[in-house]
Design brief:
Blueprint: H1 2-11, E1 21-24, E2 27-30, H2 40-69, E3 74-75, E4 79-82, E5 88-95, E6 100-103, E7 107-111, E8 121-126, H3 127-134, E9 139-140, E10 147-150, H4 156-162
Parallel strand pairs: 3-6, 5-7
Antiparallel strand pairs: 1-2, 4-5, 6-10, 7-8, 9-10
Helix pairs in contact: 1-2, 3-4
């Protein structure tokens, strides 16, 4: 069923959600399975593809809106990669110099464009670690899918706390 849903998403011109949903207590909710389930990877893939579709559509609309309004705001990209182990992970980029609407991703790549090109990428950190250490820098925009406005960059101490091997 998951493979069929993904095939429909790929072949239809209108975006659809390939992620499995359930009806629980009269409410629609995400279907989930434990990590040891034989279908965990397939469910994770469907969920991440759904997020990618929603974020791409949202990004296009926000960029068009901000261009029309003359707002200088970077709309962060939701990037999806497949791990060597077969699973999937998402990341977005947070730049030191640009106010950004960050999509909620598994990881955040920290970038400092004021540094020499070979040193601009400061490192990658897990989303939940960044929120734990620098959550006060996030403003929830209440959008769907979730986006967070960030205008101030984490301090060197905050970056050191979340990036295992950073180049500050």
């Amino acid at each position: 069923m998951l493979k069929h849903a993904e095939e429909i998403v790929r072949t239809k011109s209108r975006p659809m959600n390939p992620a499995p949903l359930i009806l629980k207590d009269g409410e629609i909710a995400d279907f989930s399975v434990t990590e040891n389930s034989p279908i965990f990877s397939d469910v994770e893939r469907a969920r991440k593809i759904a997020a990618l579709i929603y974020y791409q559509e949202q990004t296009e609309k926000l960029m068009k809106l901000y261009e029309q309004k003359g707002k200088d705001l970077f709309v962060g990209k939701y990037t999806l990669n497949q791990r060597e182990t077969g699973g999937y992970e998402s990341y977005s980029a947070w730049s030191k110099t640009v106010p950004t609407l960050l999509p909620k991703t598994d990881f955040i790549a920290f970038v400092d464009p004021t540094k020499p090109e070979s040193q601009r990428m400061l490192g990658l950190a897990k989303w939940e670690d960044v929120v734990r250490v620098a959550g006060d820098l996030f403003l929830d925009t209440r959008m769907f899918p979730a986006r967070f406005y960030v205008s101030k960059f984490p301090s060197e101490e905050q970056l050191a706390a979340v990036i295992p091997e950073q180049r500050l």
